[in-house]
Inverse folding.
């Protein structure tokens, strides 16, 4: 497989080199494009927007997170754009966390892992550093992904506690002595065995929404070796200030995602160059995040 | 949207017309192709195999179930093959249950619904009757799919109890007074409101593995209005005989999937026409299933 170093060490080095814990989510919508990108050809529009965002944030973002649904929305042409966007990130040296939340069993999970964390030309796989996955089907369903974490230098982020209002319905039921999100977090300690990096973290991360800061604390305690991927700041209402407990003393252990707040920043002033505005918005988010770390 | 009738009524009519409760899963692998299909061009191979299977089973299978991972495995070319396969099923009048197990929140879930249950040319959406989805993110995450069930004549099958060995890890925890799979089944009664057909069932089905027959009974009781999609017979070890409680007196209420057992049937005799053997295998499974129904 394509990566020599462990994902956790790679991302830790990146975080420390560019001093950023920010992940920029790429959720491209054809009805919200910068004025110089035409929606007429969806594939070209997705590709230009995606690559343009990566260029704008390449020295500011610890990683980019393309959301695969916004590419699938346009069928196979969208998938071709996704591949081009992931390839460009890789060429620009920006780690890619592909947000696909896949989860299935046996040979099907293996096929997903091959497509999205594999080496097959013609798929996004070769350019993807880490993938989000869904734990509902249990440990064996994650095994093909975990194998690529252990042996291929890839990473995964397993959904624990999602940022949406209904996230608690199954993940954190009332009166549940061990809510599922915490059971998932504990299990991640086992899944991460064999991919422990010299940075102190392993390659099996967890997704925890910024909208539930007290649950970030519980996940942090249950899974001290996992990087946390934290969506839900900005548009979804999570406050950056409450994220301090996600980080260790070196400021490692968490990545914080912002999507619309950064990519759509150009809408504020149609007269200015859109990439400049995206870069500024990313800079601001990155600095806010740096302010959260212990001094 | 593209379907005038409700999914549940459409599938019930199909079941009764061709007297079949069988779903044929299409999980195409390039290392297990019939001798007259070359693996050299993956897109062509997937397309030819998929369409060939549908031709073979078109009068025997209540529906076909392409597994999207085996197409994604080949990137955008695989997605183009998937679209061609779904289109062909639709042209041949065979309902398509697309097995994608998607699950995400807000506008992302909406984008998945548009891609896979929508009307956008260039996506599989227009040719898909029903989609499998993952409930881990809660009711709000399913809403864009449910909207298409209520207003678009589509169906969904929500994962409840999966057929794999680790399926119970989160879905059915020890000492859990209300296991998640049963909570999901109960919730389906609410999700199905507004899509109740004259057949007595609504459009929000549930996935329950054949490997856990006693849990099929519990799901059947908790969700009397849901069609059950039952994988796990054949290669995975579930016994057809134990599936009787899934059906009502009219023999409605469940669809039973077989994938490898049917599609790979041609491997038994490389001298014979492969589609003939696939058809025979489908016929046999269909008859076994008919034998399970109350007389």
């Amino acid at each position: 497989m394509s990566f020599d170093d462990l994902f956790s060490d790679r991302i830790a080095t990146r975080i420390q080199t560019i001093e950023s814990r920010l992940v920029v989510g790429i959720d491209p919508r054809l009805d919200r494009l910068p004025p110089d990108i035409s929606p007429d050809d969806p594939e070209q529009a997705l590709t230009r927007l995606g690559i343009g965002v990566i260029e704008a944030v390449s020295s500011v973002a610890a990683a980019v997170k393309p959301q695969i649904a916004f590419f699938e929305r346009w069928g196979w042409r969208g998938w071709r754009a996704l591949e081009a966007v992931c390839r460009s990130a890789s060429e620009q040296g920006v780690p890619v966390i592909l947000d696909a939340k896949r989860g299935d069993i046996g040979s099907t999970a293996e096929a997903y892992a091959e497509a999205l964390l594999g080496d097959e030309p013609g798929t996004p796989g070769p350019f993807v550093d880490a993938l989000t996955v869904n734990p509902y089907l249990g440990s064996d369903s994650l095994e093909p992904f975990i194998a690529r974490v252990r042996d291929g230098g890839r990473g995964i982020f397993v959904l624990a506690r999602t940022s949406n209002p209904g996230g608690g319905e199954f993940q954190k039921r009332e009166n549940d002595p061990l809510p599922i999100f915490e059971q998932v977090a504990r299990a991640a300690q086992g899944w991460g065995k064999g991919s422990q990096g010299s940075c102190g973290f392993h390659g099996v991360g967890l997704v925890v929404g910024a909208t539930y800061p007290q649950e970030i604390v519980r996940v942090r305690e249950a899974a001290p070796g996992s990087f946390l991927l934290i969506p839900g700041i900005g548009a979804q209402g999570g406050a950056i200030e409450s994220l301090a407990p996600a980080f260790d003393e070196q400021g490692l252990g968490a990545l914080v995602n912002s999507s619309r707040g950064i990519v759509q920043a150009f809408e504020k002033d149609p007269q200015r160059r859109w990439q400049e505005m995206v870069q500024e918005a990313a800079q601001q988010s990155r600095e806010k995040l740096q302010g959260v770390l212990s001094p």
Notes: The beta strands of chain A are 22-26, 63-66, 97-102, 130-133, 155-161, 204-208, 228-230, 254-258.
